[in-house]
Design brief:
About 5% of the residues lie in helices and about 45% in strands. It is mainly β.
């Protein structure tokens, strides 16, 4: 036991001499042997602080106390606190490093600035910071979010958890703080689809001390559904446009969304379907429209739009041409030719007197026997195909007798 005691005594002497040398450099302090010496300095330490207690000196002619501190790597005791009240018997030194050895001494001083003789030098060691979280996990493939879970820290000094996030191997930045030691999850939401991040989690004590970092974990959000392929649009159907595309073998499939450009500027959603086809009923001939189709999955994620395709309803038949118009003296005879092969029936319209429409004519000849002599008339012919689509009228012919 003699060697350890000798070593400790030597260390104390070194610290005393170092303290005196440091104080002499700071200020020419006069040692007053009549001032009370602090020979007992009780102490207790935490992670980043140390608390001290000494006996009272209420009846002594002093102003207060100087507290000196040195570290294991620097045996020089430096002034760290001036306690300007002789009635104080407690003090807490803060902002210390965890798991670190320190040396302390205290001296009294009077109003002339004189200091007492060296007293006791005490050694203490701050507590270790909490260990890293024993278990952390990230749940991937969630829609627009990533869920983090961990096992609550067993250290009762822990008050919360600090989560940091990095992207693509970049710098970690503060993301969130989860209160309560027993809390065990955090959801990072409002993310983009198929977005990847790295995370690390620290336990944080009531004093604000961080534990060691957890292991770094990586996770990604759920990707978007696949795009629609081979979108086609019809151009020869009456009063409708039919869209078709490749069906998807996609396990999370919910439905397709159909978009149409109904004005000059933007596409709007007009329908949804679970089939790989859709018919847009328009009820007009020769109308063209642009379309896009997307895929929506069971979580509401929507794929990128398909390419744009233009469709068109069947155009109207070409207008017929009147090739003969004859006044017989009591009637008007008309004949015409088709300019395509779609016409199945015709309508003749007469202007003059009272306008009249003659319908359901199945030949390319018409005789009007209801004329009034001396009245001027004009005629035009319209072709109608099998779908009831009407052509533009022919050029008018004029009859005057």
């Amino acid at each position: 036991m003699k060697k350890p005691l000798c070593l400790l005594s030597s260390l104390v002497l070194i610290l005393f001499f170092s303290a005196c040398a440091n104080l002499a450099q700071q200020k020419e302090l006069i040692v007053n042997e009549n001032l009370p010496t602090i020979d007992e300095l009780k102490h207790i330490s935490n992670i980043n602080s140390a608390a001290f207690e000494w006996k009272s000196f209420y009846n002594e002619d002093i102003e207060g106390f100087y507290l000196y501190r040195g570290g294991a790597n620097d045996l020089t005791l430096s002034l760290v606190a001036t306690i300007k009240d002789k009635y104080k018997t407690h003090f807490v030194d803060t902002k210390l490093e965890p798991d670190t050895k320190y040396y302390y001494a205290m001296k009294s001083f009077n109003k002339e600035g004189h200091i007492s003789k060296e007293g006791v030098v005490v050694e203490l060691k701050t507590m270790s910071r909490p260990v890293a979280l024993p278990f952390v996990q990230a749940i991937s493939s969630l829609p627009l979010k990533i869920k983090l879970i961990w096992r609550p820290h067993p250290d009762l000094r822990v008050s919360s958890y600090v989560i940091e996030r990095a992207k693509n191997g970049g710098e970690f930045k503060h993301l969130a703080e989860v209160k309560n030691r027993l809390s065990a999850e955090y959801i990072d939401d409002n993310l983009n689809a198929n977005e990847s991040f790295e995370y690390r989690i620290f336990a944080k004590t009531f004093e604000g001390i961080y534990s060691e970092s957890s292991q770094i974990i990586s996770s990604s959000t759920k990707p978007l559904p696949p795009q629609v392929q081979n979108l086609l649009a019809s151009t020869s159907l009456a009063f409708r446009i039919r869209l078709t595309w490749d069906d998807l073998n996609f396990k999370d499939f919910a439905y397709y969304k159909i978009y149409a450009k109904t004005n000059l500027f933007s596409f709007v959603n007009i329908a949804k379907t679970q089939s790989p086809s859709y018919e847009d009923v328009i009820n007009e001939a020769g109308v063209s429209r642009e379309y896009k189709v997307s895929v929506v999955d069971k979580d509401g994620l929507e794929s990128l739009m398909s390419h744009t395709i233009k469709g068109q309803t069947l155009e109207a038949p070409k207008a017929p041409s009147i090739v003969s118009s004859t006044f017989t003296g009591s009637s008007v005879q008309l004949s015409w030719v088709d300019n395509d092969d779609r016409a199945l029936r015709y309508e003749v319209k007469r202007y003059g007197g009272s306008d009249v429409e003659f319908k359901d004519i199945n030949q390319k000849f018409f005789e009007d026997t209801s004329i009034v002599l001396g009245q001027e008339y004009s005629y035009e012919v319209v072709s109608i195909d099998e779908f009831g689509i009407r052509s533009l009228p022919s050029k008018k012919v004029y009859i005057s007798k």
